[in-house]
Amino acid sequence: MVPREQSDFMQRIIKLRYLVGFLGEKSQCNWWPTSFYEASSIRFLEPVFSRTAPLAQYHGAVEAARRFHDENLSVGSFHIFRLPEEIEQDLHEMVQAQLLELFDPSLIVDQASALSALSKVSNGTADEAVGPVLVGKTDELRSSALLDKFGEIYRMALSSDTQALPYLVA
C-alpha cells in the first residue's frame, strides 16, 4: 500500500497533468495540436478503448504535453510530464488503479473551469514568467511548495496567452 503522503503527492501531479493537459490543447490555449478532451474524441476512442476511453484521453494529452515540453526544454531536464522513472511508474500504477476517482470531467468543461480548478490545486505564488522556468531540483519534487509553484506558473501563463514551462534539474 502506498503511504498517504506519497499518494497525495502523486494525486497532485496527476491532477496538474490532467488540467494542464486539457488547457494546453488546441481548443483552449493551443500549446499542442491535440483535441483529446473534446466531446467528439471520446466518441472516437470508445469503440477502441471501450472501458478505458478516459484513460486514453489522459495518456494522449500527457504524451502531447510531454513532447511539447521536451522540444522546448533542455535535454535532461524534468517537468511534470516527464519525471524520474520510478515516479512515472508509480503515477502509471495509480492512474490504472484509480481511473474514475482521479478524473473529474466537471473540472474540464471549459477553459474557465479548468483554470479555476488549477488555481485550487496550486496554492502558491510565483513571479510572472515566460519560456523555460527553473523551479528547483528533482530531489525537492515532493515539496508541496514546489508543486504549488508549478501549478501557479502554468495558471498564470495559460490565463495570459503566454507560454511558461516550469522544469527541474537533477
Task: Please render the helix and strand layout as text.
Blueprint: H1 4-23, H2 39-45, H3 53-72, H4 85-97, H5 99-102, H6 111-121, E1 131-137, H7 144-159, E2 164-169
Parallel strand pairs: 1-2
Rg of Cα set: 15 Å
How would you state the average pLDDT, rounded? 88
- Uncertain regions: pLDDT < 50 for 5+ in a row? none
Strand order, sheet with most strands: 1-2
Order of helices and strands: HHHHHHEHE
Overall geometry = globular
| End-to-end separation | 27 Å
Q: Name the beta content range.
A: 5-15%
- In DSSP terms (H or I, runs of 4 or more residues), the helix count works out at 7
Number of strands: 2
Helical/strand content category: mainly alpha
State the main characteristics.
170 residues, mainly alpha, 7 helices, 8% strand, globular
Explain this structure to me?
This protein is mostly helical and 170 residues long. Helix content is 54%, strand content 8%. It contains seven helices and two strands. The protein has helices spanning 4-23, 39-45, 53-72, 85-97, 99-102, 111-121, 144-159; strands at 131-137, 164-169. Strands 1-2 form a two-stranded parallel sheet. Helix 1 (4-23) packs antiparallel against helix 6 (111-121) and helix 6 (111-121) runs antiparallel to helix 7. The longest helix has 20 residues, at 4-23. It is globular and about 40 Å long. It starts with a helix and ends with a strand.
In short:
Helices cover 54% and strands 8% of the residues. The chain contains 7 helices and 2 strands. A two-stranded parallel ribbon has the order 1-2.
